[in-house]
Amino acid sequence: MMEAVLWRCWRRLLSCQPRALTQPKSVLSGFTGQTMRVGTAHSNHTPPLLVSRLFQPSNLREMKESGLEGRSGEMTCRSQKLMLKGGLIYPSNPGCYYYLPAMVRSMEKLVRLIDQEMQGIGGQKLDMPSLCSAELWQRSERWDLMGKELFRLRDRHGAEYCLGPTHEEAVTELLASQGTLSYRQLPLLLYQVTRKFRDEPKPRFGLLRGREFYMKDMYSFDASEEAALITYQAVCQAYNRLFSRLGLHCVQVQADTGNIGGRLSHEFQLLADIGEDRLMVCGNCAFSANAETMKPGQTDCPQCHWGTLTESKGIEVGHTFYLGTKYSHIFDAMYNNSQNKPVVAEMGCFGLGVTRILAAAIEVLSSEDAICWPSLLAPYQVCVLPPKSGSKTAELAGVAEELCHSLGESLQSLKGEVVLDDRTQLTIGKRLKGAIRLGYPYVIVVGKSAADEQPQFEVLCQQSGETLFLSREGLMDLLGNVETV
């Protein structure tokens, strides 16, 4: 019976395929608009990415009608509103979101940048379990210290676990289980990019404070305090390079070690009015600190002694800790020194909030109505707008399609980065407004000037705010300088 059904399906597939290939172009064009015309005009080319095919439900603009308002809680910050309206995220449970395809593209780009910086200082990537044994956390005494912040559960055998908010215990146990390291293997820097879980009592601000989020956490093992502090500085410098590449002005501030522990800690803060951290910054020297590390009411700078401290607000996007032997001593993470004697390793841990960086960047760079991405993190770099169907310039649709193909094929950095807004039933103005709202760094309008003897294309450059009219050669020169990751 099953074989007969499969045979009928196979015969139907074979019978349909030749008819599709031999239909007149006019029939194919009317079937799915630009999609099929691309297929017939460029049979040997990869068709462009089409906006109509992207799963980015930005049509859910009325928050009350779509139910987003009630499900996401009170929306009190710019990034949350823009990401919901732009179809980047969708609320699931309080403090938890679906990350939709455009958001995932941006997140993957950020992770690639993080990989470059972490591996550039010797980091090795691994992946540790999210399900963490209570026994490990009880040995470090953080099972009770973390309290209700931990998501706790029992398996069918009664064993207790938590969903990992961080992995100091796990990584130190991993190292200890491998036997004693040689001093020649140090420094050892292990990192991961994974989902983390924290039972926030009041999730708010979208991805800025949630219960489930992505974080990069790195753990270092060194032979001495001096070596550990050198590693600490190397990671801080890598963080500063990362934020500089993103065009984000982050301040490295003195911070409390909190429930992570250790003897030295710094936060990387992105200055923003919506920020929940109070920062004290000296106007005379490089000193800056989280206000919780200062004496109440202190306004004099403890570093230069005469500068005045001013208060700012910030969003924490990174945190570094020098741990010493806090965890390595508990779990017996040892190395053999040059005299072949076992010594407890010195440790550090270093976090970056991956999804928080994305939300914070949108928060500080964007307007109330339009997303502005760090250029390296935009989901797509270029959006091409063909003319409206039925308009006097509708015949230029093929020019737009060919332009998309040329950009992706001629400029290696733009391969997979160019989309065609094929929703030609909408006016150019309406599609242009949507493209600006979603934050494409470059929007190219194929209008009547594209039919001139010397074709010109209108180009909106989001980063500079300029509108340019360029020839094809000028367009290639402009976009040839676009950096992607």
From TrEMBL:
Residues 108-379 form the Aminoacyl-transfer RNA synthetases class-II family profile domain. It is an enzyme of class 6 (ligase). One of its GO terms (biological process) is prolyl-tRNA aminoacylation. GO terms for molecular function: ATP binding; proline-tRNA ligase activity. Its EC number is 6.1.1.15. GO terms for cellular component: mitochondrial matrix. This is Probable proline--tRNA ligase, mitochondrial. The lineage of its organism: Eukaryota, Metazoa, Chordata, Craniata, Vertebrata.
